[in-house]
Recover the amino acids of this structure.
């Protein structure tokens, strides 16, 4: 991988994504062994720098780093300097002084990892920034879909939920569209990021990639759930938060569940056997019905398992490992 | 109700008692319709007619091949004193002004304490008399403490010398209070300058709401937050018979409301900044959006309020300046310290250090053929002076001897480390601008000389 940082998938070429997905297969193999630890990152220090609480994501990165034999340091928002109003720049200096080889950063402000990556010689992996990006989540979603459906090209991906505030949706749109799938982002009009579709199409064009898949644009926004589900190979639900009601974006979660929640009837409108996904944590009965979340089409548990392997692959490649290599 | 006229300036004209001759330049003085090769003579701080026979002891500036114009007038600058001296002081702010060709600047009242009392007005004027290079006029707050709750003592402020009222940095959003502010301002004869931003529409906003903000995942500042306030204020101005001056217009639709109000005889004037005339929101996306962009994405030097908007808005600003919907160019010079900008985008302060790049920026529009040099100079001189009723903006005989001499074609690279301003915050760092100030004269005294 010829890059210092993984901040989003918008600057990834299809070959680079393919390299990560191939390496993930090798990492899955490692995870299937009785002793899951391999040596490629021995002696390297990886700092998990979480300005926003997320045990799931932090543990996933931590396991990935430890499986590769790296030393892991966690700086989280509880009981550390992060909480004491330390600025991003102070933290960056500390990280530089500590001699971190790799930094995983999660931050509530969109773009924060970019500020750090510019000033740090260490590799920076974006573990989620504001509403902007969550590239390792998107990579694990790509891997999960590829594992289930065999190929990504030409697939139709429907993402339903609070798209406006979702870094998962933004990175997934870049990832799937880059790999030749088409993405439809669906939400009530108040939760759609107007212009995001044009932004991605502009970016794809700049990368010399197609912007139309089987007659439809590579990325679309819609508030029509039925239209979004029609012909979908993948249906991904996004978390919808209660606080959206306080800011007047949603009347009620009950209404949201009725109008946009993924029920069995709704999933039946997608392609037969469509893959159901959710980045977690789920609000069962709101954006996704329990029988859908845990039904036969659900890949939610695989997503979590694949998360560790994908993050191992990203760390391994960033540290200079070769794609698909023996580990 | 009678109030004193706009008081003599902080730096009184005529403080320099000698003769100065600016020889052989292309004199552009839009107030008098002059665009010709002509000399300018200043004696005892004021312009005198013709070229005197006796030049013994006169200082001669050779302006051949250069443009000679009245010193520029800026209706909107943040000099930060008192309270934020680490960002700027009257001394450094006015030094930046003369470096950029501005001989008159109006200081915004978002200081600490706010300029809402005669004592603070006097403090700023004293600093200007003591440390100032350019002439300084003071804008008083509309509301006490700029809190948007109760009117400041506007008549007392006018008597203390303020030339206008503004809560700039914040909008007076309460429509009833804005109505009363406009009505009350009539007694002072001064305009009310509104920073038009419906705050309920800009909660958490970081940049223009559009394609780029959607991609960057930054909360957007929609045009409508500006347009709705301007629409409302135009109606309240008609109701009260006041003079509304709209600060830093950024959205194309705002111009429609201004035109409509003017057509009905309402006194509305407007200004636009160099950055809203030349830059767009794609800059926030950095090199993602333009292979030639020198900035990385999320560079906080692009953060400004109101935000950089889209090419259609930028083009509408240029057209508005041409057709008169916008009266003048004002810099909204907003210097910040490193700690204000060296943070994540959402935590960064808004503003651009503008005084020293304003001329080079707006000349790019002239070079592109979208505005004439005369139009741009009018927008920097007589037009702003007329809005606040300032004795500035022309080189007619008897006028203050405030002159800018510039080379419209000289190319220079913007290096903020060389700024006279303490504010190094500009997205133009490293850019090559075409057009540079060669010399600035204030009251017959050469205060800046690059010749
Ligand atoms: Zn303002």
């Amino acid at each position: 991988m010829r890059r210092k940082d993984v901040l989003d998938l918008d600057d990834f070429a299809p070959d680079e994504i393919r390299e990560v997905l191939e390496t993930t297969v090798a990492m899955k193999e490692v995870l299937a062994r009785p002793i899951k630890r391999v040596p490629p990152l021995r002696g390297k220090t990886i700092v998990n720098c979480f300005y926003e609480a997320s045990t799931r994501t932090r543990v996933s990165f931590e396991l990935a780093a430890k499986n590769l034999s790296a030393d892991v340091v966690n700086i989280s928002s509880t009981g550390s300097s992060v909480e004491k109003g330390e600025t991003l720049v102070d933290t960056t200096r500390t990280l530089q002084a500590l001699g971190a080889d790799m930094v995983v950063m999660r931050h509530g402000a969109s773009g924060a990892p970019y500020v750090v990556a510019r000033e740090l010689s260490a590799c920076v992996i974006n573990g989620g920034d504001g509403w902007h990006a969550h590239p390792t989540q998107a990579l694990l979603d790509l891997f999960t879909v590829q594992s289930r459906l065999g190929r990504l090209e030409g697939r139709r991906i429907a993402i339903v939920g609070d798209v406006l505030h979702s870094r998962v949706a933004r990175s997934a749109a870049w990832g799937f569209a880059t790999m030749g799938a088409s993405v439809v982002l669906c939400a009530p009009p108040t939760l759609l990021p107007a212009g995001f579709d044009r932004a991605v199409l502009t970016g794809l064009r700049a990368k010399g990639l197609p912007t139309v898949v089987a007659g439809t644009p590579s990325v679309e926004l819609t508030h029509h759930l039925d239209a979004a589900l029609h012909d979908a190979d993948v249906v991904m639900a996004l978390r919808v938060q209660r606080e959206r009601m306080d800011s007047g974006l949603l009347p009620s979660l009950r209404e949201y569940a009725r109008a946009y929640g993924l029920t069995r009837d709704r999933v039946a409108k997608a392609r037969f056997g469509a893959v159901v996904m959710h980045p977690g944590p789920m609000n069962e009965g709101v954006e996704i019905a329990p029988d859908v979340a845990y039904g036969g089409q659900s890949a939610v548990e695989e997503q979590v398992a694949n998360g560790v392997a994908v993050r191992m692959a990203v760390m391994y490649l960033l540290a200079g490992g070769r794609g698909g290599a023996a580990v | 109700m009678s109030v004193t006229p706009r008081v003599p300036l902080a730096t009184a004209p005529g403080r320099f008692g000698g003769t100065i001759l600016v020889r052989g330049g292309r004199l552009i003085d839009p107030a008098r319709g002059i665009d010709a090769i002509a000399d300018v003579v200043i004696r005892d701080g004021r312009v005198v007619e013709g070229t005197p026979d006796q030049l013994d002891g006169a200082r001669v500036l050779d302006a051949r091949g250069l443009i000679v114009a009245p010193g520029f007038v800026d209706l909107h600058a943040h000099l930060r004193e008192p309270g934020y001296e680490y960002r700027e002081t009257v001394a450094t702010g006015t030094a930046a002004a003369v470096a950029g060709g501005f001989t008159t600047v109006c200081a915004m009242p978002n200081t600490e304490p706010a300029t809402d009392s005669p004592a603070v007005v006097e403090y700023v004027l004293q600093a200007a008399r003591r440390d100032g290079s350019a002439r300084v006029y003071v804008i008083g707050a509309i509301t006490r403490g700029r809190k948007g709750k109760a009117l400041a003592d506007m008549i007392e402020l006018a008597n203390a010398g303020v030339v206008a009222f503004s809560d700039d940095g914040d909008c007076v959003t309460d429509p009833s209070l804005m109505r009363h502010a406009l009505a009350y301002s009539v007694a002072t004869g001064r305009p009310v300058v509104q920073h038009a931003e419906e705050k309920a529409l800009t909660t958490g906003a970081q940049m223009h709401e559009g394609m780029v903000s959607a991609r960057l995942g930054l909360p957007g500042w929609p045009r409508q937050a500006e347009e709705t306030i301007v629409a409302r204020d135009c109606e309240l101005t008609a109701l009260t018979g006041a003079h509304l001056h709209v600060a830093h217009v950024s959205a194309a639709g705002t111009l429609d409301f201004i035109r409509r109000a003017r057509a009905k005889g309402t006194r509305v004037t407007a200004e636009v900044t160099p950055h809203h005339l030349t830059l767009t929101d794609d800059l926030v996306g950095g090199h993602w959006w333009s292979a030639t962009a020198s900035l990385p994405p999320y560079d906080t030097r692009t953060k400004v309020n109101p935000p950089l908007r889209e090419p259609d808005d930028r083009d509408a600003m240029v057209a508005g300046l041409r057709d008169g919907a916008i009266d003048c160019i004002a810099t909204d010079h907003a210097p910040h310290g490193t700690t204000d900008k060296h943070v994540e985008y959402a935590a960064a302060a808004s503003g651009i250090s503008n005084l020293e790049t304003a001329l080079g920026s707006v000349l790019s529009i002239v070079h592109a053929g979208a505005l004439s040099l005369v139009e741009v100079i009018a927008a920097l001189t007589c037009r702003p002076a007329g809005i606040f009723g300032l004795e500035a903006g022309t080189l007619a005989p008897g006028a203050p001897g405030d002159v800018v001499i510039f080379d419209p074609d000289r190319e220079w690279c913007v290096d903020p480390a060389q700024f006279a301003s303490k504010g190094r915050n500009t997205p133009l760092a490293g850019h090559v601008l075409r057009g540079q100030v060669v010399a600035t004269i204030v009251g017959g005294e050469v205060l800046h000389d690059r010749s």
Notes: Residues B 168-169, 195, 247-248 surround zinc ion (CB under 6 Å). The longest helix of chain A spans residues 14-32. Residues 79-84 of chain A have pLDDT under 50 and may be disordered. Chain A touches chain B at residues 10-11, 87-89, 107, 109-112, 114-115, 118, 129-133, 167, 170, 193-196, 198-200, 202-203, 247 (CB under 8 Å).
